[in-house]
Amino acid sequence: MDHNKLADLLFPDVTEVPDDMEKRFPQRELPENACVTRIGPSPTGFVHLGNLYNAIIGERLAHQSGGVFYLRIEDTDSKREVEGAVETVINAMSYFGVHFDEGAVADGDNGSYGPYRQRQRKDIYHVFAKYLVQQGKAYPCFMTAEEIDAIREQQTANKENPGVYGKYAKYRDLPIEEVKAALDAGKEWVLRFRGVETDEYFTVEDAVRGKLEMPRNNMDFVLLKSDGIPTYHFAHVVDDHLMHSTHVIRGEEWLSSLPMHVELFNTLGWKQPVYCHTATLMKMDGSSKRKLSKRKDPELALSYYQQEGISQDAVWEFLLTLLNSNYEEWRLANPEADYRDFPYSLSKMSISGALVDLDKLRDISKNVICRMSAQEVYDKWLEWCREYNDEYAQLITKYPERTLAALNVGRGGAKPRRDLETWKQACDFMSFYYDEKFTVTDEMPPECDEETRKLFFEKYLASYDHNDDSSAWFTKVKAITEELGFAVKPKDYKKNPEQFRGSIVHITNMLRIALTGHANAPDIWEVSHVLGEEITRARLGKWS
Ligand code: GLU
User: Fold this and answer.
1) Cα separation of 264 and 194, whole Å?
2) Using CB atoms within 10 A as the burial measure, which of 73, 174, 387, 527 is most buried?
3) Does 126 sit in the ligand 1 pocket, CB within 6 Å?
């Protein structure tokens, strides 16, 4: 068989050769040991947490080493493509603070290793496809779907491995005249790799999993589909070679196709990137662990975190705790540090499934928000509200000073309040600062019956001086508490409950509920000063 003739027959328009491609995509000029990494999402419209998980690893490796992190859109499966999906990926990554040095952007490309959308790289793949045919390493296969089904049935019956290989690769050596006749007759074909018949094993060092021993590929897998678009396998190898990726970070579901990729790298004489197959995201379901499912678990979608208003910093910190076992220890030792200063390391990654625990995320989120300045919280909360809660965006901008002062309550110091956990929940929590949203939701303590309430608020308002400092204010509260027959010291009440009508805890709860609507709210004196005298008097006056 004259392979050159076959190559010309299949790819008459391809005039460039691999060397031309090497020149077009030269070595990058980067510091020694700089990592070049990427994410390669498919534009299906669904961006999942795993995309961000892998993006963080790639981003950290590249930016910690002075390298390059890029975005490649893997759109070889046009059936799964959804309109606007590229923008969705780009926006989601940008919302979570993942910045690409190069790659696909909304209206084109940024960088000199593009195009960064695989379908636009068809000509590039064809150069290598033609080369592989010339080398006798690839051939056209005219097998129909029915023929493939028949093979599969036969293989199942014989308990053989499924796939096109060995005797099942019936178009491997089709005489060139027959290829020509089939092409002239307009028969559909795919380009297959010519697998070697072998039962050898090879070893590969996975940066996350260590040394892996796997059977060498013996399959005639598809390189180009019938529309001339490459499969993931071929596109991955060509792109990561030409774009000079040093590390390929991808989900462990790709592990089983690694033998095909290694075979292709070897056949083309290219250096393999370092593979990092990351653990699948799992969750606890009752007492057992299972994979996160698109259908059952809203938290698999990145949009969930956006809609819930979980800050980008919290999501990063949460994923870093999943990614590196020593992150939490580092955070405790460096409470004020930027999480980007954490020295991320591939070798500290776990290979058992990463457990996505939303309670833990919320807890981390509280810590993250309580460390922010009031202004930062204000800006981020407002930005979220502008997209997801217009009513609150309007309230915040109608009362900017009050909002900022409210966000300052309990902030700073060694033990800041951890009231806010998400931007969505902040709308609920902060509602009492706005008359437009204020409602009393909690029940008054039973110790404070209607008569007590009336009496208390009458006396409280009569002696209320908005200029009192917090200790003068509290002295007055204590005096009224005593007058009403309540214990000023909770422990006195505990010791002799029959001697009192209740304790100061009941009194301050009543006051807090009247002022904020909730028993769990920040300091009463501080809240009054954020609300101002007029609102304070109006809210409390309703009870007197
Ligand atoms: N397009 C692949 C995916 O969405 C990317 C895998 C890779 O990063 O190589 O899973």
Assistant:
1) 10
2) 73
3) no
Which pTM does this prediction carry? 0.88
| CB of 114 shorter than 6 A to ligand 1 | no
pLDDT of residue 536: 97
Spatial distance between the Cα atoms of 471 and 119, rounded to a whole number of angstroms: 70
Place of tokens 């952007």: 105
Note the pLDDT of residue 352. Answer: 76
| 236 CA closest ligand 1 atom index | 9
Predicted local confidence at residue 72, as pLDDT? 97
CA distance 267 to 181: 29
Q: Enumerate the β-bridge partners of residue 248.
A: 275
Q: What is the pLDDT of residues 238-290, one digit of tens each?
A: 999 999 999 999 999 999 999 999 999 999 999 999 999 999 999 999 899 99
Q: Give the residue, out of 81, 254, 264, 277, with the most ligand 1 atoms within 8 A of its beta carbon, to mutate for a pocket test.
A: 254
Report phi then psi at 360, rounded to 5: -65, -40
Q: How far apart are CA 84 and CA 81, in angstroms?
A: 9
Q: Is the dihedral of CA 512, 515, 519, 523 positive or negative?
A: negative
Which residue's C-alpha comes closest to atom 10 of ligand 1?
41
Identity at 316, one-letter amino acid code: W
Domains of the chain: 3-15+122-230 (3.90.800.10), 374-433 (no CATH), 450-541 (1.10.10.350)
Amino acid at 364: I
Give me the helices (H) in 46-204, please: 49-64, 85-95, 122-134, 145-157, 176-184
* Ligand 1, atom 4: closest residue by C-alpha: 41
- Residue 217 reports pLDDT greater than 80: yes
Mean pLDDT, residues 412-433: 94
Please give the full DSSP string across 139-155, using - where no structure is assigned.
Answer: EEE---HHHHHHHHHHH
Q: Which amino acid is at 83?
A: E
Task: Write the CB contacts of 495 (distance below 8 Å, at least 6 apart in sequence).
Answer: none
- State the greatest distance between any 2 C-alpha atoms of the chain, in Å, as a whole number: 109
- Strand extents, DSSP E, 72-197: 102-105, 108-110, 138-141, 190-193
Q: Give the number of other Cβ atoms within 10 Å of residue 159's Cβ.
A: 6
Per-residue pLDDT tens over the stretch 492-539: 999 999 999 999 999 999 999 999 999 999 999 999 999 999 999 999
Distance CA 70, CA 58 (A): 9
| 10 CA distance to ligand 1 middle (Å) | 28
